[in-house]
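hey can u run this one w/ adenosine monophosphate bound, need the structure tokens asap thx
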Amino acid sequence: MLEKMGTKFDPEEVIEEFEMLTKDAERVQKETLQKILEENASTEYLKKWGLNGRTDHESFKAFVPLVTHKDLEPYIQRMVDGDTSPILTGKPITTTSLSSGTTQGKPKFVPFNNELMESTMQIYKTSFVFRNREFPIGNGKALQFIYSSKQFKTKGGLAAGTVTTNVFSGSLFKNTMKAMRTQCCSPDEVIFGPDFQQSLYCHLLSRLIYWNEVQVVSSTFAHSIVYAFRTFEQVWEELYTDIREGVLTSQITVLSIRTAMSKLLKPNPKLADKIHKKCSGLSNWYGLIPELFPNTKYIYGIMTGSMEHYLKKLRHYAGELPLLSADYGSFEGWIGANVNPKLPPKLATFIVLPDIGYFEFITNVEVPKQDEIESSFLSIEPKTVGLTEVKVGEEYEIILTTFAGLYRYRLGDVVKVVGFHNSSPKLQFICRSNLLLTINIDKNTEKDVQLSVKAAGKLFSNEKLEVVDFTSHMDLSTEPGHYVIFWEVSGEAGDDLLRECSNCLDRSFVDVGYVGSRKVKAIGVLELQVLKRGTFQKILEHYVGLGAAVSQFKTPRVSSHKEESHWKLEKIMKVYSYL
Ligand code: AMP
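ok here u go:
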């Protein structure tokens, strides 16, 4: 682990360690489990299940049940409320991470500790050395769109923030980025500012000032990069004026940000004119990133899973620049590193690092409904296999056991094994394991909805329009119930075109249960609802207001009536299909 490596950074050493770990994945997994169970043998949780100091995987599987977050909530809540007895971890926990709340309904706490911080750095370093071999950067600086969420103390005095906030605020993160020569160059006051729109503006401004130093444009998830450049389209003239005059716009009101930015800003009419010329010369903002930052080597961020929707727009802004998809993890723990950066984003694979946790995989994934995944201990426990027992071509649900107090934890993701690197599996992300849309015998996941939106969105290609973002809903208030897809469109689309899109959306759900149910009218006609421009920004702001970090934001792909009223969806048009 990185503990051994400290923050010194020797690429050869990182590769050597990675090869060594993956060559002996079975042994490393056994030792990792042993270490986790030894360190936490005294915990109330493991004692409750009668593990009695056993550290082998057979006993672990036999005694400790598979759980969901809901099952662990009472334990975590006690920790959050200040109970320092060994509940889930042997060592007391001082920090908790909060989920973004956008993947799993509401924000949730999990323990965060040094081991999670170290595995984060191990993942970052591993993928970096492979990436840097293919796409070397010089003495690089990164335009990293990173933001902290609100940080607060829980009732019991634990520090709480989203996992990215916990990571970004650690000195290990800064030192590691420095060692990899990819540090974010915005002042800390910008990263940790209380208003993400102001932080975003200043991320852009500080990089424009040092435009020629930018070698990498990145964020945790691709959504934040697209969001940043959409914002650039709106505010570029203001940025231009700031650089020209050397005075920060009065829109930036946070004093700490103003003070930090004022130190960087000097009147620079030459640079301002250059930016103006570039922006005025672009057609529909194609190739904006290399135009502004010509030394950029690549764009980097998670582009798989629910991020696939943003790829098209990202490609548009990136021009010919390589798009490199980042690693795979969650606020509960990391899973794998992308060590094949040359693969196109959609085909990105993740090699599991066998020393960062203990991994099991549920075979024969039966996609559960939302309420089933929330339920407590399952009556019939699904069968799991170990890390090195998975089979190429098969899909599995991931189970995590971590150094931070999660034991046999159903992460809720489905992955496909597409090969092995030495003896550690190479995974592709498939989807969240819960179903989004199911009314009758139909079963449609996040991925199915995305594919349907993608197919229908193609009808816009001649119109220079795009689907900015989308979410969905099961409307059971009608008889029979039907699917509703909400869209925000980048411009004006005519009724006929939207009706065609609506038809296409309906036809593009190819699941036999859906097709059959539609035929016999057990499911009604799909409804497309077009939302007012800016609605998805409001949804983002809603979650950020609740404590989510922009860096971790994922648009919720399904909504309930309750959420819709929180989000204040303003529908501008309803379009039914007439199949
Ligand atoms: P959060 O814990 O809110 O940061 O979200 C974690 C979830 O994001 C994971 O459980 C996945 O569903 C998704 N995710 C994380 N990394 C990737 C990736 N590389 N590809 C696709 N989905 C990902």
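DSSP finds 22 helices and 20 strands in the chain. anyway lmk if its weird
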